[in-house]
Design a protein that fits this description.
heterodimer; A: about 270 residues; alpha/beta; Elongation Factor Tu (Ef-tu), domain 3; Rossmann fold; 7-stranded mixed β-sheet; about 25% helix; B: about 300 residues; TIM Barrel; 4-stranded antiparallel β-sheet
Amino acid sequence: MIARRDLAVRVAARSDLSPTCFRLTLATQEPVDASPGQFGMLSCGEGFDPLLRRAFSLAGVSRSGETTEVELLIKEIGKGTALLRHSAPGTDLRLLAPLGNGFSLEGAARRLALVAGGIGLPPVLFAAEVLAARGTGFDLYLGAASAAELLEVERCGRAASMVGGELVLATDDGSRGERAFITAALERRLSEGRVYSRVLACGPTPMLAALTLLARDHALDAELSLEEPMACGVGVCLGCVVELEDGRYVPACKEGPVFRAARLAARWWA
Amino acid sequence: MRVRLAAAVGDLTLANPIMAASGTFGYGLDLLEFCPPERVGAVVTKGLSPRPRRGSSTPRIVETAAGMINAIGLQNIGVEAFCRDALPVLRERGAVVAVNVFGERMEEYLEVIERCEREDGVAAYELNVSCPNVTAGGMEFGHDPAQLERLTGMCRAATRRQLWVKLSPNAPDLVGTARAAVAGGADAVTLINTLRAIAIDAEKRRPVLANACGGLSGPAIKPIALRMVWEVHRALPEVPVVGIGGVESGRDVAEFLLAGASAVQVGTAIFRDPAAPLRILAELERFCAEQGVAESRELVGALEWH
C-alpha cells in the first residue's frame, strides 16, 4: 500500500483552462507515489469557513530533483474552489495524499477506452499519460457541454497518438467534435465493431450511469471514478458511502473512488 | 516549564485530557500514522450496536458555515467484529478505550455492554442516547429523564467499568437529563452530541440530506457546547463532565476545562486534520506553559465569575 501523508504543499502555478476550470500545480519536497484514480484532500485556506478540505483526483505527479509537483484540475463550483482559484503562487496549503484506490492499468489484452466528461478529466488524463509512457494502447473519449469546456485537448491528443490511439471529442452543443454525449460516440464505435479490454471513466453521474449500461450490453469491464460528498477522505466519517450490489454501503474514499461498475447497486445507475 | 497533563474522569485516570470523539476516529486504528490511539487520553469508538448497521441513505453530509451536518445513521461493524478485530490491537497498543454504545431498545444497550464485559481493555462505556439520526432508540432515551434513568440503571448493573452518558443538546431539560443519568448510576456525562439541524437547497427546494435533518457539529456549535458544560457543571459540580463541541485548538480545550469539563473530545476537527488530537494536545501544553499553569487539571471548573 502506498503511504499516505499530510503534505505541506505550496502553490507553484495556477492557470485558467476554461471559463470555469483551472489548473493548480502544487509543489512539495516530499515524494508522492500516486497512481491514476487516487485523490487528495486539499485545504482551501485558513479559518473555519470553508471548514473541510476538498477532495480532488490527481491529474499528474512529477518529480524533478528534490521537488514533487502535483497537478490538479479544478472546477470552480463554490466557496472552497473559488478560494483555490484565487490563491496566489507561494500560498501554503495541506494535501492529504495519495488516498483511495485507482484504476487498474495492468493486464489489458487489447486497447482500453478512456472516457472523461467535463471536469471528470483529471484521473483519466493521469491514466492516459501513464499508459502512453508504458506503451499500452487506448482511445480517449473526451466530452463536455461546449468547446470552451473541453479541457486539455492537445495534451489528450498527444498522449493518445503516442500509442496510436484516437482522441474522440464530443460536445452537447456541437461546438467542437461530435454533437452527442460522449457515451453515444463510444457506443457507435462499439457497434461498428471496435473492441476494448476495459473502460476507465470519470465524469458526471448520468454519463457514468449510461456507461454502466453500455458496458453491460457489450460485456465490457468498466471502472468508474465516483464523486461523493466527503468530509475526511480517510474512511472515518462514513459520509461518502456508495451502495454496492450486495446492499452494503462502503466509503468511496477507501474502497473507491474507483469502482468496478458491476459492483455498484442497480439503484445507482437505473 | 514542564506541564503535567494527566486528567481524570471519575476514578479513571488518563495520560491527558484529549480524547478522540465517537464517529470521527473509526475504531481507533484508521489513522495510525497520524494519531496513534495510545497517545491520546482515550479513544471513543464509533457507536456500536449488537449487530452491524447499514446506516442512512445518501447524501449523508453537508458542509455549513464553520460546521457540517451529518446523518450517518450509526453505520457500524457491530460489537462482535469490534471485539474480534479492533479491540485486541487497541489493547496490545495500550490505548484507553471507551466504547460508545447504541441500541434501538434498552436490551440492545445491555447486549453491547455484556459482550464487551467478556473482554479486557475496555475502560469505559459511553451511552449514546442522543443520536439525532435514527428513528428508534438513541435520542428518545436521552430526552425523557425517567427512561434515561432506567436505561442507565440497567447498564450500571451490568458493569463496574466507567459509565458515561452522552447527552443530547436537543433535550428539553438538559440539567434534568444529566441528573437522571447520575441517578441511574452514571460516573460522568458527555456534553454535547450534535444539534439537530437542516440544510436546504434553495434551487431544488429540497433538503440537502436524504434524511432531511441531521446533526450539526464543528466550531459553529462551540459556544453552545461551552454553555451547556458550564450549566451542568454549575448545577451538579460533583459530576465529571466530558466536554465536546467544535474543539479545534488547545485554547478551545482550556475553555472547556474552565467551564467545568474534566476532559475534552475532539471530533469534527479530525476530518480537517487527521493529527488534530495530538496537535491540540501540544497546543494545550503550550497554552498552560504560557499561562503558568503547572497542571492542566488546575483549569477544571476554574472559570472566574462573580
